Amino acid sequence: MATMADVARLAGVSAATVSHVMNGTRPVLPHTRQAVLDAIDELGYTPNGLARSLVTARTRSIGLAVSAISNPYFTEILQGVEASALEHGYSLLIADPHDDPEHERKAVQLLHERRVDGLVVAPSADSDGLLAYLGRHAVPTVLLDRTVDAVADGMPRFDQVCAENAEPMAELVGHLTGLGHRRIGLVAGLPGLSTTEERVSGYRHGLAGAGLPYDERLLVHGDSATAGGERATATLLSLATPPTALVTANNAMTIGALRALREQGLSVPDDIALCSFDDFAWADLFSPRLTAIAQPSREMGARAVQVLLDRLADPDRPARTVRLGCSFVHRTSCGCAEDSPARPTPPAPAPAARALLEGNRP
Q1: Interatomic CA distance for residues 10 and 286, integer angstroms
Q2: What DSSP string runs through 65-134?
Q3: Nearest Cα to 65, choosing from 76, 57, 54, 74?
Q4: Does the pTM of the predicted model rise above 0.85?
Q5: What are the pLDDT digits (tens) for 193-216?
Q6: How far apart (Å, rounded) are the C-alpha atoms in residues 219 and 86?
Q7: Coil, strand or helix: which one is 32?
Q8: What is the rounded CA–CA span in Å between residue 177 and residue 185?
Q9: Of 164, 161, 159, 102, whose CA–CA distance to 133 is shortest?
Q10: 80-112 pLDDT, tens per residue?
Q11: Cα-only R_g, the chain
Q12: At residue 121, what are phi and psi to the nearest 5 degrees?
């Protein structure tokens, strides 16, 4: 069986250089790196991961805890995490906390006990127990998709990677107001999640930017689930003056909303316009095609791994929050024509609304 020394001898480099190439611990010249990789391939060298972990106290593994892994959104995030972890020589251990605080803490504890080098976690709406555990054990952690409040000095407690939420939602609402809608309903997510709070904030500021009042009856929580989205949509449709346009705050609730609209015999967009904060693979196959905010889910997963690796390399660095931009995917469920060259420009937010939107970021 080939050894690291054999690889070094064939590549004409030191064993330390071979180690740096394999572990990514120090930059290596491209031609030297290629010589090492060629030698590894020729000799069929396989490193002894167990022996290496005993020496370095590292297992080259990352724990990922995200709920609803069957959700296409989280599936794409997982793909981004996995691809980036593999690229950097890390394996991935996955747990589904089911958005349940007690199950979440146990799942993360189990990953921690498996001696993962760090964690990527999408926290639940009630994550105090989880955060206390992570802080008590000083586990290198990146919070993914959902953020937690900063401490007194304004700095985040943990590294965080998420998408912009408030401004894209305000843009979506502004698009609908630009089409003439004045009663826009929101099927909001699970209360307590930062994504829910930020998207609700964006919804309200989108209305304010168009000079429209906020009507609390037009906002119903669908709890980020298909069944909840269906119930919330039915509630909105039962109003004495129902909305003429509907925004759903994630893809699961979009499916629920479509079920409720079908049950009522309503046509999109002839009877009611529909837009979604969350694009997904088959949204373009709907009839009409779904206008949506697309989140950079794979990039978010990959960036979370990079931020975690930065933390492992420099444990004392200040925690940071990384926000990635979303994109407006203009289709036809909003009521625009199929061949519409561009969406109407929404009204600019009023100064107070803009200030609140900018202050919404951690």
Answers
A1: 57
A2: E-S-TTSHHHHHHHHHHHHHHHHTT-EEEEE--TT-HHHHHHHHHHHHHTT-SEEEE---SS-HHHHHHH
A3: 74
A4: no
A5: 999 999 999 999 999 999 999 999
A6: 42
A7: helix
A8: 12
A9: 102
A10: 999 999 999 999 999 988 878 888 888 999 999
A11: 24
A12: -135, 135
